[in-house]
Amino acid sequence: MKQYLLLLSGITLLSIITLVSCKEDEGEKILSDAKQIESFEFNELDPIITGVISENNIELTVPYGTDLTQLVSSITISDLATISPASGVAQDFSAPVNYTVTAEDGSTQEYVVTVITAENPFDESKEILSFVFADLNPEVEAHIDEKYKEAEAWLPFQSDRTNLKPTIVVSEKATISPASGESQDFSSPVTYTVTAEDGTTQEYIVSVFEDEDETGFPHAVLNMRGKWKITLPLNKSDEYVTDSHAGDAKEIKPEELITYEELTYGFFKTVQHPDTDEYGVAFSANCGGERTSTGTLYSRSELREYNRNGARDWSNEGNTLHKMVLRQAVTQAPTNKPEVAAGQIHNGDDQILIRFTGNGRGRYDAYTDGDGDICTGTITEAGDPNNKTGDLRCYYENSKRYVVLDNDYTLGEIFTVEIIAQNNQVIVNYNGENKLTWDVTLKNCYFKAGCYSQSSSKNQCNGKSYPDDDVDDLAEVVIYDMELY
Q1: The pairing of beta strand 433-439 with beta strand 425-430
Q2: Domain 218-484 indexed as CATH 3.30.565.10
Q3: Topology of domain 128-210, CATH
Q4: Which of 47, 86, 247, 466 makes the best surface tag, with the fewest CB within 10 Å?
């Protein structure tokens, strides 16, 4: 009996120990903390795209043209973990997407998935590089305006435009329709379509014009080609102004300028060189004439670059060429302050200004009286109207700096000035010689040409150290040839 009781006690104790041991084992179960993305693929693409995993960043490069907005991913993660967004769900990968992996134990790890589009394997260039009528004598090359995707060519007076064969050069691997060398009727604009290797297209409108008879209106003499408007020293009622009034200057837009000339006072007219048969256009302004605004002290008879879309503003960034060539002469300057501007790049400031300054200028010592009147002082030297000499300068950086073009210029001498703006530079050449290469970025620019007097009938009241010029005293510039690119 005693042995039986001992055996029973042993069995009971063993059962208790086993039960306690099982409960302890159950309470110490360890949950997994694994939370890795082991692979990330787009297996619906052909070929399958597999992501490159670097720490917590995943990057995939998909073929050019892949729609990033509806990509379905196939993701492998650690056992017992979950992921959000889920595998197999379409996502927009236009921007990086955050994925969160949650381990069995509730800890998390974020991954950033970035999808990159491979570069276009096909050339996307689709530009017209040159457009030339090589069969003409001399050949004519069109000016191509990349900003507006237009090309313009100008043929000699009375040329036939109905059967022309252009030679066209386009971007490498691109094609063009109609084809190069194919006859076209250019009596009206023709649309050309350039197709890149990648199949994208770009249209160009090509217009061919006929230059006007060069013995007629000023517009025709200088082949202005509808690219300019002019401001005159008259007021908008065509009245002659002598009080240097501001804000009412007469303006002629391109469509009206074609047949316009100002013969009553001679401010804008066709003239002949006194020693040759060459025709030119005279631009003149009187010192008491109407001013464009209170922002200027002086009157003008001046062209401003313009087109049918309005102001023709441009930047010199990039390789698009902006170029003005003037063959001209300063023929007359005011007596007391003999200064005349004859060509500009303007953008609210005078970035480039070609100016004649005469040697025969007058002198005036201004002073302010007790009432603050600066229109008082003493003329110490009168200007010499018989002195026709001076210098030509190119002012730049809003007239803060200058280079001398000619330090011994005589009124009436014809010179050629070339102003080029391209590739963040401005280049000025004078009679074929480089005078300025200026590294600068300019925006909202336009060319000006003609006569911009730098003297007024109110020099003294303007605080200038020059005597007043007579209200009828003239500044004049004659342009014989002008090209705008």
Answers
A1: antiparallel
A2: no
A3: Immunoglobulin-like (2.60.40)
A4: 47
> Nearest-CA neighbor of 64 among 202, 199, 203?
199
pLDDT interval class at 213 (50, 70, 90): low
Q: How much is the average pLDDT of 208-232?
A: 83
- What pTM was computed for the model? 0.66
Tokens (6 digits) for 121: 């394997």
Whole-angstrom CA distances from 159 to 140, 156, 209 are 12, 6, 9
Classify the phi-psi angles of 264: left when phi > 0, otherwise alpha if psi is within -120 to 50, otherwise beta: alpha
CATH code for residues 37-117: 2.60.40.2340
β-bridge pairing 150-155 and 167-170: unpaired
Structure tokens at 419: 């102003």
Mean pLDDT value across residues 129-137: 95
- Is residue 178's pLDDT more than 90? yes
- Tokens linked to 431: 């009679």
Torsion of the alpha carbons at 128, 130, 134 and 138, rounded to the nearest 10: 140
Alpha carbon 468 to chain centroid distance? 40
State pLDDT tens for residues 251-293.
Answer: 999 889 988 999 999 999 999 998 988 999 999 999 999 999 9
Contact 170, 193 (CB under 8 A): no
CB 165 within 8 A of CB 153: no
CB atoms within 10 A of CB 416: 14
Percent of the chain with pLDDT over 70: 91
Cβ–Cβ under 8 Å, residues 347 and 445: yes
Q: Return the domain boundaries, the chain.
A: 37-117, 128-210, 218-484
Domains 37-117 and 128-210 share a fold: yes
Q: What is the CA radius of gyration of the chain?
A: 39
Whether pLDDT at 7 is above 60: no
CA-closest candidate to residue 330, choices 319, 338, 342, 312: 342
Contact 176, 229 (CB under 8 A): no
Number of DSSP helices (H) and strands (E) in the chain, helices first: 3, 36
C-beta separation of 225 from 154 below 8 A: yes
The DSSP letter of residue 437 is: E
Which among 421, 462, 429 is positioned nearest to 445, based on CA atoms? 421
